[in-house]
Design brief:
The protein is α+β, with helices and mostly antiparallel strands. The chain contains twelve helices and 23 strands. The strands form five sheets. Strands 9, 11, 12, 13, 14, 16, 17, 18 and 19 form a nine-stranded antiparallel β-sheet that branches. Strands 1-2-6-3-7-21 form a six-stranded mixed β-sheet, covered by helices on one side. Strand 16 and strand 17 form a beta hairpin. The longest helix has 18 residues, at 274-291.
Length: 486
């Protein structure tokens, strides 16, 4: 399957992307890709370093005539989001990504593609390997664990880099130049509960919510996409209110930075209410599907009769937790007052796990304003603490404040206009980029972010546009030619 991808133009980039996608690289399990990158740098005879946390830095001298230009740090992250369809048999820890070419798009067979941020990594690798591309001195920075904690960027030591310009190749619109991003914080609600024996007069059902698009919980949070955890909670809440539904198990969503696509609940109701329950829940399911008919046309809600579960959760805890999930903010909390159409603050109720006497509700709260991020995190904390949960904050990382007077921004704006006969869209984004963290370590570094068109990132629908990659590749090469002199 990768042969069709390897034949695409520009071949240098697509071949490196295919090489990269042959190496398993899920977040927090990047050992093989770190070794791959170190071997690559050493085979080229370039200075190659692995730092204390696993970031890889490869240095390449300037090409002839470019020695007086500023050293450029080219940066992308090595890890990828590992999401797959339920009916896809795939092991991200042992298999390479199976790629397909469909028209103007490259996608994967039932899994995430890894274009986020594999295309950025492949771009840098292709430039490091080339003997013909004109460029200033390059420090290639390949960070780890961007998707689940940004621990690579956080662990990078000040002083290891010498460049004054950073090109972050991790955005997903080819007409956009990124100058700012949101910070984020993980908010996790935890508690235990007692399990009770299910009374003999109850019968069991499995409720499934599936077919949602999912996607990036930052870049797509404003699109009105369905959140499987919130939809499931509506069904459970209604079932309890009308028929005394009791929860045995609940599993919904997965990664914090992905809008949850699927949820499954094992429940029990009184046998005498079976017909009325099925009628009511199907009416509600159809109502929800009508609400989402435009944004989620493939939404499926199924209710299947199963063997009665042996245990159900404590009634008081169930009532409190379902009410808390109902009340918890999900989606856009606040729009920016300073930048038109920019989401300032949002939350993604990413994962809900209720099983074996334990509850875990995982959220990712994002904001480009630190005080607003804290405000929303506190609102979530208060909501969950009211129902007896312990709430933990973790993984806090800062946003990246725009600098509209950036010298490298002026270079990129000019190059883009010269190549495309139009002005680029200069904007901040609601995703979490590593620039904010790197800027804390290197406060004087002039940073910018850009990339090719990628759609459906963080979901099995992820795809990269071939024609956009060609446009982006020309842009990168011309930017390197026009970097400022010292």
């Amino acid at each position: 399957m990768s042969q069709a991808v390897r034949a695409l133009e520009p071949k240098q980039l697509w071949n490196k992307f295919a090489d990269l996608n042959a190496v398993p690289r899920p977040s927090k399990k990047e050992e093989r890709i770190i070794t791959f990158m170190k071997d690559f740098g050493k085979q080229l005879g370039l200075e190659t370093i692995e730092d204390e946390v696993g970031n890889v830095i490869i240095r390449k001298p300037a090409t002839q005539g470019m020695e007086t230009r500023e050293t450029v740090v080219m940066q992308s992250h090595l890890d990828m989001v590992h999401q797959k369809n339920n009916d896809t048999n795939f092991d991200f820890e042992s298999q390479g990504i199976e790629m397909l070419v469909e028209g103007d798009w490259v996608k994967a067979k039932g899994t995430t593609l890894g274009a986020d941020n594999g295309l950025g990594v492949a771009t840098i690798v292709a430039i490091l390997e080339s003997t013909t591309i004109v460029h200033p001195a390059i420090e290639a920075l390949f960070t780890i664990d961007e998707e689940t904690g940004m621990t690579g960027a956080m662990g990078l030591k000040p002083g290891i880099l010498t460049g004054n310009i950073l090109l972050n190749l991790d955005t997903e619109e080819d007409n956009e130049i990124g100058v700012g991003c949101a910070g984020g914080m993980d908010v996790t609600a935890l508690r235990t509960y007692k399990e009770e024996d299910t009374p003999e007069f109850k019968i069991g059902f499995e409720i499934l919510v599936k077919g949602l698009q999912g996607g990036h919980s930052g870049m797509q949070i404003h699109e009105g996409l369905g959140n499987a955890n919130k939809i499931m909670n509506r069904l459970l809440f209604d079932g309890f209110q009308n028929f005394g539904l009791r929860i045995s198990e609940l599993t919904g969503g997965g990664l914090r930075n992905a809008i949850p696509r699927e949820s499954k609940a094992i429940v029990a109701i009184d046998a005498m209410h079976e017909d009325a329950f099925l009628l009511e829940i199907n009416v509600l399911a159809n109502t929800i599907k009508k609400e989402f008919k435009t944004t989620e046309p493939d939404l499926i809600i199924e209710v299947l009769k199963i063997e009665t579960p042996a245990l159900i959760m404590d009634l008081g805890v169930q009532e409190g937790v379902t009410r808390a999930i109902y009340a918890a903010i999900n989606g856009v909390y606040k729009m920016s007052a300073d930048i038109p159409n920019l989401v300032e603050t949002s939350n993604n109720i990413a994962s809900v796990r209720i099983k074996d006497g334990n509850i875990e509700i995982a959220c990712l709260t994002r904001s480009s304003v630190e005080s607003s991020k804290t405000d929303l995190a506190n609102a979530l904390r208060a909501t969950f603490e009211l129902t007896g949960c312990e709430v933990e904050y973790s993984g806090d990382y800062p946003g990246w404040t725009p600098n509209m007077d950036s010298p490298i921004l002026k270079v990129l704006t000019k190059v883009y206009k010269d190549l495309n006969n139009e002005q680029p869209h200069v904007a901040a984004c609601h995703a979490g980029l590593e620039c904010g963290i790197l800027g804390q370590h290197y406060p004087d570094m002039d940073m910018i972010s850009f990339g090719p068109n990628i759609r459906g990132a963080h979901s099995p629908d992820e795809r990269a546009q071939i024609s956009s990659v060609q446009k982006y590749w020309k842009f990168v090469l011309e930017v390197l030619k026009q970097t400022p002199t010292r």
